[in-house]
Structures are given as C-alpha cells and as structure tokens.
Amino acid sequence: MDERAFSAAVAEFEAALDRGEYFPEAWFDRLSLDDAYRLQLALIDGRGDKRIGWKVGLTSRAIQQQFEVHEPVFGCLLADGKLGSGHVFRRDELIAPGFENELCIVMGGDLAPDATPADVAAAVARVHPAFEIIETRGDLTRQLALALADNAQQKGFVLGPAVERAALPELDKVMVSVRINNVEVATGDGSAVLGHPYNSVAWLAAKLAQFGERVKAGDWIMSGSFTRQFPLAKGDRIAAQFAGIGTVTASAV
Known about the structure:
By secondary structure, the protein is of the alpha+beta class. The chain has a single domain, classed as Fumarylacetoacetase-like, C-terminal domain (Fumarylacetoacetate hydrolase, domain 2). The protein is 25% helix and 32% strand. It contains six helices and 14 strands. The strands form two sheets. Strands 1, 2, 3, 5, 6, 7, 8, 11 and 12 form a nine-stranded mixed β-sheet that branches. It has a five-stranded mixed β-sheet with strand order 4-14-13-9-10, with no helix packed on it. It starts with a helix and ends with a strand. The model has no long low-confidence stretch (mean pLDDT 95).
C-alpha cells in the first residue's frame, strides 16, 4: 500500500471507529498484516492516546490453537488501560470481554532490534503478575489483519505487586494457577510463552524495528498468556497466582 492509499485507509478506519465499527466490512480480506500494523500505530497516534508499552499476543500453543493462528502478534498498551489488582469492571461497558494470565515485564533499558533473550534479561527492571483484558470486537480468526489494526483486541491490563529483577525466579519455570469464582480452571508455566517470556520480548524488539519502533526503558510489556484465553462474565471473580511472583485479581459486576 503506497503512502497515498495508506493515508486514505487511515481516514476510512477513523471514520469507521467514530461509527463504532471496529472491523469495517469494506476492508474484509484487503489488508496485509504489515499494513494492519501500520494502521494500528497510525490510528493510536492519531487519536492522541498515550502509548506506554506493548502487548505480545498469540504466544502460547494453547492460544494459537484456540484462534487458529501460528505466529505472535503485537499491540499497544495505553496509559488509561493500566489498572491495579482488585479492579472491578462493569461487564456491560465491555464488548464480549475475556482475560489472559501473563507476566508484565517492565524494561529498565533499551533493546536493540537484534536483542537476544540474554539481552532482555539484563535490561529488565521488574516483573508484575498480570491479566490482559481483551474485547472481542470482531472475528480474529477470519480477519486477523483487522484485529491487528484494531489494536489486537487490547482493552486494559491489571497489575499485581512487582518483583524486582534481582529477586526473580526462572520465568520459564514459573507455574500459574488460574481461578474463576474460586475454582481452578487452568494451570501452566512460563515455557508456554515461546519457550520463555524473554523470547517473547526479543521477538517484539525485532518485529517493532520493521515499523520504525523500539523497545525502550520504561516500556510495560505484556509478554503473553501461559494458558488459553477465558471469557469474563458478569459476577466473575478471577485470580491468577504465579509461583515466586505473586497474585493478581479482578472481578466483573
């Protein structure tokens, strides 16, 4: 897509969003994934939203199988989406919401595009137990490019207390127990995230470079879910306990 066509596409997507149309039908099967990422970044910058970091999605085999895709994706984290553990959501204000259990990695240093997992480990400042809250605003499986243009389902992220780098366990060995209404619904470990959550961050550094972006000190990075995604229903109380890291909770009314 040349620059003139891209500018026209941005205007069309902005108009669709103003109408509450997140997956504009006129664009079904028309976007490349690269153009979708470019649109995502342009639409967020155009709205003036404060970008504070990144999410990496579709990192675990369970998530990839759930959505019939076979590579990670990225989206943007926005300042108004950062929430504390125990947050209470109003379910009726969300669009078909769901949640994923993740580690949120806060960077203490910049990363080069060719960063290795060892480089990531050296640049991490701290890690939080976290939920990503997503909205199903369209059909991700059939229209992945539109989902990426719509910021990869991102709605918000909920953070528990941090663990500083010096006190971190081996993240690929960290076990999580996910509970909904006090019933355990899933377990998993950090190796589900591309073998190690730092592999996810290294993938992100390389991918962002294709679009003129970098992983920088101060970025918040949701590194990917340990298990499959779950819907968030009215009345749900959710918790994820990460061994050696901590617990994050939220609920919906």
